[in-house]
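Postdoc handover notes: sequence design on the structure in folder B. Input tokens:
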């Protein structure tokens, strides 16, 4: 039996690993965890902020101590980190009315450690859409220590996320029902049940956060980033985007090509793909990662706890998923549904480092102990120990549905599920279209059209074993940008830089710190 981590450490480990690699829609529209502010209450009204630190005025950031930044366990440390500085920047709620109502964008900064050689600010978006950049930067800063020598590391909660008028959807009961929903509909009654749950969820989001919903989305977030660039005093924006952060970076480069400095887009999306295609490709990506996990489990030291060979292990997983679909597994006062079990499995596939957790979690679940799988799912969903939620699961559909005009009907949703199930019986589903078809705000396709002609070179890094943003999207985004330079990482996991691969780190650091653009065709074999 391989060495595994204790159940109590699951949430902490996953928080540290996954907050830096949030992804777009997986199956029913989930995104990995980002422990930050608790759910509850309403979106912050225009012109106010919930962030720690001082409140800035239009065009100015007032920096102060960070007092509400959350750690991997979802709790605010008793003693704040004195190296962190927090503040906010006031921006228009509606850019069509620049002198109208405003909202405050929460920001965080970690000053460069070598001030004598400081280059400037490096702005991060860690993904989602919907991950809190404020909390993630505080948790993930050590992974970017080499860049922090010469850059101030800066991140933010995009509009509609956490402290920046975060989208909320009533409270815990609504969120629990939504996140525990089973992912596959077989009968018409199943489809009707999913539709009721999602319509109730969407209506709750409109009740609680209706004022902000029409103004979230990637195009407005890109405009906010240019206001940040000005407020930071930077002639060009230096930027590091991961997963959804690559789409945000690509849209920024399209809107403001002359303001592009040194840009890295790691684990890229193809913003042009349809909902149908995105669901099918991502289902295949997670299936590929799951198959690699099974191979690794069987060949690992000792025996694989979930089956003597790949076929048996897979059958055991499929049987368990079928069992909890019919009869959820009791975990204290809660239940591990098929939807939550599926989420727990997917969460542990984001990094090879968490595969032992997945083996342990499945082995426990086969013996009617669902604690670890539920912990993995809670972390992925942003459910905090007290039962409250971060805004990730509510910000995610708000931004995703704002970024597309697609609103598929039931026939289209059924076709998508059939196609997805063919490539992945475990992860196939109807995808984000199920949510957007009931969303109360119309979307736009503007964020799906990318062309950075006239910008400086943009480095795009794609991983061949990335489950959430499959490699095929990397060359496609590179081509659409027009100024993109592709770097290929032949390794597992979502996000190449945070994998710890030394080749990727060297190539990226040389570009960001020294301005050395990677040669065409640069490839890094997993170390």
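Designed sequence:
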């Amino acid at each position: 039996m391989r060495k595994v981590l204790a159940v109590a450490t699951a949430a902490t480990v996953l928080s540290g690993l996954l907050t830096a690699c949030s992804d777009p829609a997986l199956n029913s529209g989930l995104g990995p965890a980002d422990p930050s502010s608790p759910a509850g209450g309403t979106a912050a009204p225009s012109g106010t902020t919930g962030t720690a630190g001082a409140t800035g005025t239009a065009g100015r950031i007032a920096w102060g101590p960070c007092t509400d930044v959350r750690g991997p366990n979802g709790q605010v440390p008793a003693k704040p980190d004195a190296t962190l500085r927090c503040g906010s920047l006031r921006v228009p709620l509606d850019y069509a009315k620049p002198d109208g109502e405003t909202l405050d964008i929460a920001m965080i900064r970690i000053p460069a450690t070598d001030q004598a050689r400081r280059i400037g600010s490096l702005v991060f978006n860690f993904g989602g859409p919907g991950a809190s950049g404020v909390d993630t930067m505080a948790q993930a800063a050590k992974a970017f220590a080499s860049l922090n020598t010469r850059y101030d590391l800066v991140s933010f909660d995009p509009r509609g996320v956490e402290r920046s008028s975060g989208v909320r959807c009533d409270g815990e009961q609504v969120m629990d029902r939504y996140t525990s929903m089973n992912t596959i509909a077989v009968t018409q009654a199943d489809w009707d049940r999913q539709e009721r749950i999602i319509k109730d969820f969407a209506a709750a989001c409109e009740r609680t956060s209706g004022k902000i919903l029409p103004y979230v989305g990637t195009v407005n977030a890109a405009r906010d980033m240019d206001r940040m660039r000005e407020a930071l005093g930077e002639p060009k924006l230096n930027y590091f985007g991961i997963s959804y952060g690559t789409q945000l970076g690509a849209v920024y480069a399209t809107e403001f090509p002359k303001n592009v400095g040194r840009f890295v887009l790691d684990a890229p999306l193809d913003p042009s793909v349809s909902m149908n295609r995105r669901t099918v490709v991502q289902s295949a990506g997670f299936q590929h990662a799951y198959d690699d996990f099974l191979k690794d489990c069987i060949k690992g030291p000792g025996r694989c706890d979930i089956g003597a060979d790949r076929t048996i292990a897979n059958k055991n997983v499929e049987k368990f998923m079928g069992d909890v679909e019919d009869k959820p597994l009791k975990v204290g006062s809660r239940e591990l549904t098929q939807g939550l079990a599926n989420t727990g499995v997917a969460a542990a596939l984001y990094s090879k480092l968490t595969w032992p957790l997945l083996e342990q979690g499945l082995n426990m679940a086969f013996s009617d102990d669902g604690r670890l799988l539920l912990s993995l799912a809670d972390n992925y969903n942003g459910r905090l120990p007290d039962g409250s939620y971060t805004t990730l699961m509510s910000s995610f559909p708000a931004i995703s549905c704002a970024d597309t005009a697609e609103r598929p009907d039931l026939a289209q949703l059924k076709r998508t599920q059939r196609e997805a199930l063919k490539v992945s019986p475990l992860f196939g589903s109807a995808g984000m279209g199920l949510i957007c078809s009931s969303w109360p705000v119309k979307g736009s396709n503007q964020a799906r059209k990318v062309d950075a002609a006239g910008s400086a070179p943009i480095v795009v890094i794609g991983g061949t074993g990335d489950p959430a943003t499959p490699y095929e999207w990397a060359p496609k985004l590179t081509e659409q940008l027009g100024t993109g330079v592709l770097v290929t990482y032949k390794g597992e996991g979502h996000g190449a830089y945070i994998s710890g691969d030394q080749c990727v780190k060297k190539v990226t650091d040389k570009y960001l710190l020294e301005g050395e653009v990677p040669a065409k065709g640069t490839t890094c074999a997993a170390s």
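Context for whoever picks this up: Residues 1-52 have pLDDT under 50 and may be disordered. Don't rerun without checking with the PI first.
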